[in-house]
Specification:
By secondary structure, the protein is an alpha/beta fold. It contains 16 helices and 6 strands. Among the domains are: about 120 residues, Serine Threonine Protein Phosphatase 5, Tetratricopeptide repeat (Alpha Horseshoe), CATH 1.25.40; about 110 residues, Rossmann fold.
Length: about 350
């Protein structure tokens, strides 16, 4: 069985193609699926050859060309530092077709390519892309959580700040009425504007970043763990235009952070008057983990990922999934970073 199969399911946008192309004997989607499978098996040159054949198709739609260049960029990047320039070159090709033709980057992109793409978007003044028909969506951005825990929990839960922001981003992304700004795009803007200092980013700074990224709502959160059995999570929503707090929710009890996060997403959506269908409610229940160890290891993996340390990131995601075989987010990240683990 191909271990990369599940990864193909999480990036369906890569395989969006026109009806005309579908009608061809060997479709663009077929070729890209084959190339991604080879990438997952670390057969990089074979994957590149398949995509190059794909690009020979006549009259490719812009979305199909973008999908092909995405895969070429990812595979070349995986070949090593000496291929970074080639990988970035394909991102430049995508930007010339149009940086906002489809929402980018996808989760499959390695972190360094994601940061490079944000620099390209910044140069084109396109960090915030609003597609036609999306004007009715609420754009929401989630900041990393503050950790006000005491004693040993301050250090033990240090990486959980990233993990909880990641969980909230993932679950809010399941709500069709919302457009969610990527966590790493927020970090990119903070770094580019030299606004990210040691310690927590204050609300005024975060709201400034929200305006740059076109967010209407900023989400701030904090955790305070006092002992092994007692913790509190507080989440508040701030209207970017006025900086006023428009919703606030909190949970107190056992340190079951993933469970608390999911409950707070639902409560916050209700306070914000965001309609959540029964189907979406079912989706919100899915994923996450009851294991605190799996949550903290996963969060540490995110920190390695942000530092382009893919080997250690992969090992953390693998360990998190090993601790809880139902932890879908850890499995997905593990599959993404396996080809880059060296």
């Amino acid at each position: 069985m191909n271990p990369f199969k599940n990864l193909l399911r999480v990036v369906p946008v890569l395989l969006i193609i026109s009806a005309a192309v579908w009608a061809q004997e060997i479709s663009v989607a077929d070729k890209l699926a084959e190339a991604l499978k080879l990438y997952g098996e670390t057969q990089f040159d074979s994957g590149i050859a398949v995509v190059n054949e794909c690009l020979k198709q006549p009259n490719l739609a812009s979305k199909d060309s973008i999908a092909a260049y995405e895969v070429l960029s990812i595979i070349n990047y995986a070949k090593g530092e000496e291929f970074l320039k080639i990988a970035v070159g394909y991102l430049d090709k995508i930007s010339k077709i149009g940086p906002c033709v489809i929402p980018l980057p996808h989760e499959i992109w390695p972190q360094e390519l994601r940061d490079t793409w944000y620099r390209i978007l910044k140069a084109k003044e396109s960090l915030s892309c609003t597609k036609e028909g999306e004007s009715g969506l609420k754009t929401i951005a989630i900041m990393e959580f503050d950790n006000f825990s005491v004693g040993k929990y301050q250090e033990q839960l240090g990486f959980l700040s990233k993990g909880l922001a990641d969980f909230f981003e993932h679950d809010f992304g399941k709500i069709s009425a919302l457009k969610v700004v990527e966590r790493d795009k927020i970090d990119f803007v903070l770094k580019e504007l030299e606004l990210q200092k040691s310690g927590a980013v204050d609300q005024a700074t975060a709201v400034k970043v929200g305006k740059i990224l076109g967010a209407q709502i900023m989400i701030f959160g904090s955790i305070t763990q006092l002992d092994d059995n007692n913790t509190r999570m507080i989440v508040r929503a701030v209207k970017v235009e006025t900086s006023e707090i428009i919703a606030s929710v909190d949970k107190q009890g056992k340190p079951e952070y993933s469970k608390m996060e999911k409950e707070l997403v639902g409560e916050l959506a209700k306070q914000l008057d965001i309609q959540v269908s029964d189907q979406t409610k079912s989706l919100l229940i899915e994923g996450g983990t009851e294991s605190l160890d799996a949550t903290t290891v996963y969060s540490k993996g995110l920190d390695y990922m942000d530092k382009y340390d893919y080997k250690n990131a992969y090992e953390c995601f693998k360990k998190a999934y090993g601790l809880d075989k139902t932890f879908a987010e850890a499995k997905r990240k593990m599959e993404i970073y396996r080809p880059l683990a060296g």
